[in-house]
Amino acid sequence: MSTIRLFYGRDSAEMKSRLEASAKSDNLVSTLEVRETVLEDEVIDSIVALIETGNVETVQLDDCGAYLNASAISMARALGKCKHVILSEPTFLSKFFLESFLTSATKLESLKIQDRLLAPQVEALAKGLKGNATLHTLDLSRSRIENVSALAQGLFENKFLKCIKLRSVGLHDEEIATVVSSLCGHPVLEFLDLSFNHLRDTAPLGRLLQSPNCRLSKLLIGYQNLWQTPKTNISSIVEGLKENKTLRNLGLANNKLRDDDTDLLVTVLKESRSLEQLDIRENIFYDRDMVNLAEAAKVSRGLKKLLVVKNPFGSEGSLALLEAVQENLGIIYLDVCYSDSIHQQIHYNTALNRGGRRLLLERPKPPLALWPLAMERANNIDWGEKFTQNWGQQESSMLTDPRIDVLYHFLQKSPVIFEGMLCET
């Protein structure tokens, strides 16, 4: 499978010849990218013929113009036979084109649009969403949406979307509330990204998490535009998580969260029934805050990944995090740097957790059958060159095979495990 890229500088005859040759070639084309060029009718017809072969899965039309005529309509209908479409150009985002494209789409799974969408275009998009049963991912990141109410209505009437991305769209509280309210009770929505907007009030998101049919597993609301304005209030999300049983990934990076949010996040870590990843990077948590969060992480039932870099905590907070990954064997990733020995030990312990430490520390003693599984996990650990260069004073042989590192750990920390196994053999 190959990719065809048609960029600025190619004339129509050359593009047509290349497309026709690809349609007849045994080297199947899976991706077509067209950027910064004007498409004549003969080129569009060749693109349609290539798509009709049934092998093209992804088409990207970026800043490439065309006339709105019969050829453009044939292109719109052909695009509906692709799985993934990326549009970033006014011609192929016109009301006329969008209606023909979305209403005729039969295989479309993901649609990414990046441009300014005027009210008629948003209405056409909403109409297409209403009747489409194959689309599962809609990405409008970095667009500007003139009629948010129309979009919300389209989202409300579509019951098949699993992923909605609205990053950096310039949405404020009222607009976000309109969109989120339309998603309450959505039967299959799993991923909602509202990062890089102007969110302050999370009450609508709290209601979404509490809705009986909520299936949301990933919610990203980091990096809100907080210049000279109050920070995002996360209390409603915390309340929602007390009842929610599906959310696994919560992104709160760079939202000016500080000490008065610590208790809320402690509640999340202790009480959430499903949370596996918490991203609180680039906030304002000091040592005392991180100590409290680490204590909660120790007893978190599902936590696997905790992202905390670029918070102003020091060695006290780092030691608390080290203790958390040593006691909670489910934590397999904690994104501290390699700046000192404490952080190196954190990486070492999370690597051991990924290597199956939980299995091998079962009591009264782990069965021999678990050892091959744990060694296989350890062998797949990405220890990293920097890690092996900096870790401890072990012999070089300890660093050439990560399985030896795991064995070394258990010989050092829990020799009784090996005694039990010797008895079995």
From TrEMBL:
The lineage's top-level taxon is Eukaryota
Q: Which residues form the signal peptide?
A: none
Coiled-coil region(s): none
Q: What is this protein called?
A: Leucine-rich repeat, ribonuclease inhibitor subtype
Organism lineage reads as: Eukaryota, Sar, Stramenopiles, Ochrophyta, Bacillariophyta
